[in-house]
Structures are given as C-alpha cells and as structure tokens.
Design a protein that fits this description.
Distance between the termini: 10 Å
Number of strands: 9
Strand content: 5-15%
CATH class: Alpha Beta
Low-confidence stretches: none
Number of domains: 1
Mean pLDDT: 93
Length: about 325
C-alpha cells in the first residue's frame, strides 16, 4: 500500500446484537475485537449508551467499559458516549473514577446530551426530571468539578474520581455541541456516522470559537464514520447490505438485531427510503483495501481531522474483524 494514514484511528462498538445471537455473544465478540484492535495499533475502543433497542446491548455502558478494559492492557477504553441527562453527574464521576482507578491512564469519558433512546424510555430513565437547554452544560461543569483536585474541600466529593486523569470529550451532531465544546476547551467528537447534516459547519464553529483550557490548548476534532471493508469492492458492498437494513429499521422506527447480508436491497426498501439511508451514510466508506484507504486519506485531509473513529456494522464476526484489520493495515 502506497499511502499511510497518519492520524490515530479508534473504534466505536455498540455491542451490536446480530440476528440469531445474544447480548452475551455481542459482549464476547466486542472483547475479541478490542484485543485485536490493541494489537493492530488502534488508539481507543469506545462504547455507546443506548436503551430499549434489540440491536444494541451497550445500555450498561460503564459495566461494559470495565469488561473491555479488564481484557486488554494498553488501548484506551471509554464512552462514546454516556448520555449525561440520564444520570446524576456524581454517579458518573464515581463510576468513571472507579474505572480510572482500576485502569489508570486508559479511561475516556465522552458525554452526549441526547437520551440514546425514544422519549418514552427517556422518561423511564429520568423519572420525573424534565431537561432544560442549560441542564447539559451545567451537568458537565458539575462533573468536571467532581474530577478536580480542588473539590477536596467540597461538601460533595467523588471518591474515587477526585483528582484523577479522566479526559472528558463532548460528543454531538449539532452546532450546540460544537459551540459548547469550544467554550469549555474540550476535545470534540462528531457523530457523522449517522447524523452528517451539520458536520462541516460544526467543525468550523468549534475551531473558530475554541478557547484554550486546562484540559486542551488547541482544538482537537474526531469524526466517527462507518466502514465496511473486505478483500474486494464487490464483497464489501454485499456485507454493507446488513447495515442498509439496520439503517432502514431506524427510518421505520424499528430496532431489530442486525440481519445477514442480502444480494439485493431493491425489494426491501422504497425509493424514498433508499434515499434517506444514503443521506445518513454521507460519511460511509465501503470497498476493498485500496478503495477504502484512498477514501480515508482524502477524508482526513479534507477536514483536517485529528483522529477518526470507525464503526463497522457487519453480520459475520470474522468479516467484521477483517474489516478493521484492513483499515489497521494502513497505519
């Protein structure tokens, strides 16, 4: 291969449940992937909080982070992200303080303000709490306060958590998240793998408004994208039909386990649904090694990215592992 991907690459795992398998299978496959990713040189392995979805088993995100960190030794493990409005900041500070105490120097805390589920489930998670526009910024500041060494004089303290090195990231897909990450001087991760609409504008807002902080001196941008890589472009396109079906379910409001690939999608979706899936997949890379590596290189250079996080919704576990290896061979 003639090119080298010079920025760090990381992995987002949703503990995806595939058709015919269980959540336990998803957890074991995730650990095998994390161990392989560590060997390949990936920088991070993040898990994302979702609820009430048959296809995603990462609802107890902090527990899964501990499982993955305990089965690896060097790769950073974290949340992509914890949906902070679902939790009291003190609880998250204590959970991640515990993780950072067990696995020092390896734990990341990515924070999002969406519920990670539907509104009915969000109400079940949050009980009677009603979120206002200012709650998320206030909750992030409260969480950072618990992590600070200065909080040892506070009436409420996170033990463990206080004074530990736990990098906090702001996750999002909107200009709100970009502006807030910039104001706080925190690294920013954009969810371009499923919500690409404001990607370019959000990066511009974040970089133009960034304020140096004790956490970060210059802007740091990570973009999350979908990748389905295989030995050939044709094979990759076949594998990607599992993801097409998953995205189609999102559009239709269903969250069934990831189905096997199919030879043809034409009988499975209407033209307007196909167009909607393609819009969601604006930052999706499908193909053989040369195709994917070339597209990734151009993507990194065009948007001046500091890091790329990838997710691969592939039905077969070995094919999924191979997809990540193809990307890993490029750095």
């Amino acid at each position: 291969m003639t090119m080298a991907l010079e920025v760090p690459f990381s992995i987002l795992d949703l503990a995806t449940v595939i058709q015919g398998n269980t959540a336990a299978d998803a957890f074991h496959n995730g650990l095998a992937l994390a161990q392989t990713a560590e060997q390949l040189g990936y920088k991070r392995f993040w898990l994302a909080e979702h609820h009430n979805m048959e296809s995603i088993a990462s609802s107890a995100t902090s527990v899964l982070i501990g499982y993955i960190a305990g089965g690896t030794s060097t790769i950073r493990v974290g949340s992509g992200g914890i949906m902070l409005p679902n939790h009291a900041p003190l609880v998250i500070a204590e959970q991640f303080g515990t993780l950072a105490s067990l696995y020092p120097g390896r734990i990341d805390l990515g924070l999002g303000r969406a519920p990670g589920t539907d509104q009915v489930t969000a109400r079940a998670l949050r009980r009677e709490r009603v979120e206002t526009v200012q709650d998320f910024p206030n909750d992030v500041e409260e969480l950072l306060q618990y992590f600070s060494i200065e909080n040892k004089r506070g009436r409420v303290r996170a033990i463990p958590g206080e004074g530990l090195d736990i990098p906090v990231w702001i996750l999002g897909s909107s200009l709100f998240s970009a502006e807030f990450a910039a104001k706080m001087g925190l690294p920013y991760a954009f969810a371009s793998h499923f919500a690409p609409t404001h990607f370019e504008q959000a990066l511009e807002v974040y970089r133009n408004n960034f304020q140096p902080s004790e956490y970060l001196q210059v802007p740091y941008v990570m973009a999350c994208i979908n990748i389905m890589a295989a030995d050939t472009d044709q094979e990759a396109e076949f594998l990607a039909t599992s993801f097409y079906q998953l995205a189609l379910g999102m559009i239709r409001g269903t969250r069934n386990p990831l189905p096997p690939p199919v030879e043809n999608m034409e009988n499975l979706w209407m033209p307007h649904e196909a167009a909607a899936v393609q819009q969601m997949m604006a930052y999706t890379f499908i193909g053989g090694p040369a195709t994917v590596q070339s597209a990734l290189q151009a993507f990194v250079e065009q948007y001046r990215l500091d890091e790329v996080m990838i997710v691969s919704h592939i039905y077969d576990h070995e094919a999924r592992m191979k997809s990540y290896k193809i990307v890993g061979d490029g750095f």
